[in-house]
Write a structure and sequence with these properties.
Layout lengths: L8 E5 L5 E4 L6 E4 L9 E5 L7 E4 L5 E8 L7 E6 L12 E5 L2 E5 L5 E4 L10 E4 L13 E5 L6 H4 L14 H11 L8 H7 L13 H5 L13 E5 L5 E4 L6 E4 L9 E6 L2 E8 L5 E8 L7 E6 L12 E5 L2 E5 L5 E4 L10 E4 L13 E4 L8 H4 L10 H5 L9 H9 L1 H8 L17 E7 L5 E4 L6 E4 L9 E5 L7 E4 L5 E8 L7 E6 L11 E5 L2 E5 L5 E4 L10 E4 L11 E7 L11 H8 L10 H5 L12 E7 L13 E5 L4 H12 L5 E5 L6 E3 L11 E6 L9
Parallel strand pairs: 37-41
Antiparallel strand pairs: 1-4, 1-12, 2-3, 4-5, 6-7, 7-11, 8-9, 10-11, 13-16, 13-24, 14-15, 16-17, 18-19, 19-23, 20-21, 22-23, 25-28, 25-36, 26-27, 28-29, 30-31, 31-35, 32-33, 34-35, 37-38, 39-40, 39-41
Helix pairs in contact: 7-8
Length: 712
C-alpha cells in the first residue's frame, strides 16, 4: 500500500514497459507505450473501512473492473474493463496491492492478479486477471507504479477548471473538461453517493486550499536542489547540459567549467516539489511542444523567457533514482540526454524512454556549484527562496574574470554577510575535507603517481616530483577569512597556487595551474578541499579540480585544473602535514620546577610567538595532540647547516624508540642515531633517556649510519 498511500494518480507499467491505458471507447483496457497520454493516468481511491484495498479510476470516470467474462473461449484469463458499477461497494472494482520487491501485484477478491499479456495477437497488449501457472509468465502480473504528482481537486472545482490554473503536474484544463465532464455530466450518469465520494475532502484534498498535500508527496529528488543556488547537470554520457550562445539551443558538452553549464535553481512558490532552471543568459529551461524530428517522439528543449512565470513548461519535478535524478515535465515526460549518430548526438529532448537501452538517458548527475547563499532571515529578504527574478541572482553570472561568489556577495550586502559568516550564521558549511587543513600550518600534497606538488624555482611553474623532502614541496596553509570551507596554498617562494584560464595545450580541456601573487586575493587562489576516503580533492570556485597528469610528455608531471572524464583518481591527493598550527599561549603551562629541569637540558623548547598564535583561527583554542619535532640531517662529518630550514612533523609517541622509528620513516634512512645538539660547544649527544615532559617541542639532529662523526 505504500505505493498508493500518498498518491492521487498513478501510471502502471507492465513487464513489457507498456502502460495500462483506458481506451477511448470507455470500456476497453489495454497496454500502450504512450505513457504521456492522459489515458494512462489512474486516479487512486482508498476503500473506506479497508486500508488494504484501492480503486483505480480512469480519466473517463470509469473504474478498473475485474469482470467474469473470459477473454477467449477456453482460456482461463478473464477480461479487465473500465466501467461504473451499480454500487461503489462492488468488490469487482477493488484491488489489493501486494508488494513484490520494487514492483506490485494487484489482486482481485477472487485471488487472481491483474495481468499484462504478451505474445502474438489476439493476446498482445491485452489485459486480463488470472493466476499465472507457468514460470515464464510469473512476471506478467508485476507492475511498476509511477506516481503522478497531482492533487485532484473537488468535483465542483473540476467543472470550472477551464478558467483556473491548477498546480504543477495536475491535468491540464482541457484534459479535465474533455475527460471528466462528458463522462459524469449529471446525476443521471453517476449516483449521488458517487458524487459525494468524488467531492469528499477525505480522498480529494484541494490544492488551492491546502498546500500541505505537496509535502507528503514530495519526491526525494528535491534533496539534490534544496540548498543549491546553481547546479550543473551531467548526463549518462559524461556531458553537461549547456545553454548555447544563441540563447535558444540547449545541448550537451564536455566543457563543464564553462558558465554556460551552470543553471540557477529557482523554487516555485506554493509547489515544494518543483523547480525552475535558469541559464547564464537569464532564460529558462523549457519543455516545448515542437517535435525534434518529424515522426520522432522526442520534443525539443530550449531556453525561453515565457510571458508568465506560472507557465508549467518551465517547471521540472526532480525524481530521485539512486545517486541520480530524473527531471519530469508536467506532461509526465523526462529531460533526456541523447546519444547516437547526428542529429541525435549531443541533443537534449523531453520524452519517455521505451527501450531498455535508453532508460538511463533520462538520468542526470547533479553537481552543486558552491555559490550557496545564506539561509538566514537577514539574507532571505534580499534573496528569497521563492523569489524567481532576484536582482542579486540576475546580477551574478559566474565567470572566471569576476571575483569569487563570496566576494561578490560581500560587495552586494556590505559587511553584514561577512559578520554573519564570522558568527556562524552563514550557510556555507565546513567541508569534510577541511579536517586535513584545519590544524595544519604547512603540508605536502602527494598525487596518485606518488609524486609531490612542487613549486618550481622559476617562481611560476607548478609540477610533480618525487623529491618530497625539498622545501619546494612545502605549501603553507592559509584559511580564508569568513569562509569555513576554503584554503589558500602558498609556496616557499611566497606565491599562491593559482588556477588560471590559460589552456595547458591548445585544443585540450585542461587549464594551467601556476604560482602567482595577485594584487588582490581573488577566487583563483582559493581551493575547496573535498574528502574522498583518506584522500582529498581540491576544487576551484568554478568547479574544476586540481589534477596531476600522467602519460607521455608534455603531460607527464604536469599539473592542471580540469574535470576528469576518464582518470577519476588523477584528482585525488594525499595530504601530509609538515607543521601543525601551534596552540594558544594560554594553553602552554610551565611550572618553576619544569623551568629548572629544562635549564639543564640540551633541548630547545619554543613557545608559540604572538605572530604564530594569530595564525591559528584568530587565537581560538585548538586541542593540541602530540609534540612538534624539528629535525636536521647531518652530513658524513656530522655537520649541520643551521642556515637551511629543517623539517618538522607532529609526533604522538612517548619514547626515544618510537621517535627513532618515525624519523627513519620521514628520512627514509636506516640505523640512524637521534641526537641533540649542545648550543654552546656544538657537540652532538645521542638521546638515551626519555623525552621531555608536557609534549614540549624538540629540535633534534639525525645522524646517518654512514656518518664518521664521534658522538659524545
Amino acid at each position: 500500500m505504500e505505493f498508493f498511500n500518498n498518491a492521487k494518480a498513478v501510471r502502471l507499467k507492465s513487464h513489457l514497459d507498456k502502460y495500462l491505458l483506458a481506451d477511448d471507447d470507455e470500456q476497453t483496457v489495454r497496454q500502450s507505450r504512450n505513457g504521456s497520454s492522459k489515458k494512462a493516468r489512474w486516479a487512486v481511491e482508498l476503500v473506506e473501512g479497508n486500508p488494504h484495498l484501492i480503486r483505480l479510476q480512469s480519466c473517463f470516470g470509469g473504474y478498473l473492473i475485474a469482470s467474469d467474462e473470459p477473454l477467449l473461449l477456453g482460456v482461463t484469463g478473464k477480461k479487465v474493463i473500465q466501467g461504473i458499477p451499480e454500487s461503489k461497494k462492488d468488490p469487482c472494482i477493488e484491488w489489493e496491492p501486494i508488494k513484490e520487491g520494487y514492483k506490485v501485484k494487484l489482486r482481485t477478491k477472487s485471488g487472481k492478479f491483474l495481468r499484462a499479456n504478451g505474445a502474438a495477437p489476439p493476446f498482445r497488449n491485452t489485459i486480463t486477471h488470472d493466476i499465472p501457472h507457468r514460470t515464464a509468465t510469473q512476471d506478467w502480473v508485476l507492475w511498476e507504479v509511477d506516481v503522478v504528482e497531482i492533487s485532484i481537486v473537488e468535483f465542483e472545482h473540476l467543472q470550472s477548471c477551464e478558467s483556473s490554473p491548477l498546480s504543477s503536474f495536475a491535468w491540464s484544463p482541457d484534459e479535465f473538461s474533455d475527460s471528466f465532464t462528458p463522462s459524469v455530466p449529471s446525476s443521471a450518469a453517476v449516483s449521488p453517493n458517487y458524487q459525494a465520494a468524488i467531492s469528499s475532502d477525505t480522498h480529494w484534498p484541494s490544492v488551492a486550499s491546502n498546500t500541505s498535500g505537496f509535502a507528503s508527496c514530495r519526491q526525494g529528488g528535491m534533496g539534490f536542489f534544496d540548498k543549491a543556488k546553481a547546479v550543473r547537470l551531467q548526463s549518462h554520457l559524461g556531458k553537461y547540459l549547456v545553454a548555447d550562445d544563441d540563447e535558444e539551443t540547449v545541448r550537451q558538452s564536455r566543457n563543464g567549467s564553462s558558465s554556460k553549464a551552470r543553471w540557477t535553481v529557482e523554487y516555485v512558490e506554493g509547489k515544494s516539489n518543483v523547480i525552475r532552471l535558469k541559464s547564464c543568459h537569464g532564460l529558462y529551461l523549457t519543455a516545448t511542444e515542437e517535435a525534434f524530428l518529424l515522426g520522432a517522439t522526442g520534443r525539443k528543449v530550449r531556453q525561453t523567457l515565457p510571458a508568465k512565470k506560472m507557465n508549467s513548461s518551465i517547471e521540472w519535478e526532480p525524481i530521485k533514482e539512486g545517486l541520480y535524478v530524473k527531471l519530469r515535465t508536467s506532461e509526465g515526460k523526462f529531460l533526456r540526454g541523447n546519444g547516437g549518430p547526428p542529429p541525435w548526438r549531443n541533443s537534449v529532448t523531453h520524452d519517455i524512454p521505451h527501450r531498455t537501452a535508453t532508460q538511463d538517458w533520462v538520468l542526470w548527475g547533479v553537481d552543486i556549484v558552491d555559490i550557496t547563499l545564506s539561509d538566514t532571515a537577514s539574507l532571505s529578504s534580499s534573496l528569497s527562496a521563492s523569489s524567481t527574478f532576484s536582482s542579486l541572482q540576475d546580477g551574478y553570472s559566474p565567470s572566471p574574470d569576476r571575483d569569487s561568489p563570496m566576494a561578490y556577495l560581500s560587495r552586494m550586502n556590505g559587511s553584514a554577510f561577512i559578520k554573519q559568516a564570522e558568527n556562524g550564521n552563514a550557510s556555507v558549511k565546513p567541508s569534510p575535507g577541511m579536517e586535513f587543513f584545519r590544524k595544519a600550518k604547512s603540508v605536502r600534497l602527494r598525487s596518485h603517481h606518488q609524486k609531490y606538488l612542487i613549486a618550481e624555482r622559476d617562481e611560476e611553474t607548478v609540477i610533480q616530483d618525487r623529491s618530497g623532502t625539498s622545501k619546494h614541496a612545502k605549501w603553507t596553509v592559509e584559511l580564508v577569512e569568513g569562509v569555513d570551507n576554503l584554503v589558500r596554498l602558498k609556496s616557499c617562494c611566497g606565491k599562491y597556487l593559482t588556477a588560471i584560464d590559460d589552456q595547458f595545450l591548445l585544443g585540450m580541456t585542461g587549464q594551467k595551474v601556476v604560482q602567482s601573487l595577485p594584487r588582490k586575493l581573488d577566487s583563483k587562489v582559493e581551493w575547496e578541499p573535498i574528502r574522498e576516503g583518506f584522500q582529498v580533492r581540491l576544487k576551484t570556485r568554478y568547479g574544476n579540480y586540481l589534477r596531476a597528469n600522467g602519460g607521455l610528455p608534455p603531460w607527464r608531471n604536469s599539473v592542471t585544473h580540469d574535470i576528469p572524464h576518464i582518470h577519476q583518481d588523477w584528482i585525488l591527493w594525499e595530504v601530509d602535514t609538515i607543521e601543525i598550527r601551534p596552540p594558544s599561549p594560554k594553553k602552554v603551562e610551565r611550572s618553576e620546577s619544569l623551568d629548572e629541569d629544562l635549564s639543564s637540558s640540551s633541548f630547545q623548547l619554543r613557545t608559540p610567538s604572538q605572530h604564530e598564535s594569530c595564525d591559528s583561527f584568530g587565537g581560538s583554542p585548538v586541542k593540541y595532540e602530540g609534540r612538534v619535532i624539528h629535525y636536521h640531517v647531518a652530513d658524513d662529518d656530522g655537520n649541520v647547516d643551521d642556515g637551511i630550514e629543517g623539517h618538522s612533523f607532529n609526533f604522538k609517541g612517548q619514547n626515544v624508540e618510537e621517535l627513532t622509528q618515525k624519523l627513519e620513516e620521514e628520512t627514509e634512512l636506516t640505523n640512524i642515531t637521534v641526537c641533540s645538539k649542545n648550543k654552546i660547544n656544538g657537540k652532538l649527544y645521542p638521546l638515551r633517556l626519555g623525552l621531555p615532559p608536557n609534549n614540549a617541542t624538540m629540535h633534534v639532529v639525525v645522524v646517518p649510519s654512514t656518518s664518521r662523526v664521534e658522538l659524545s
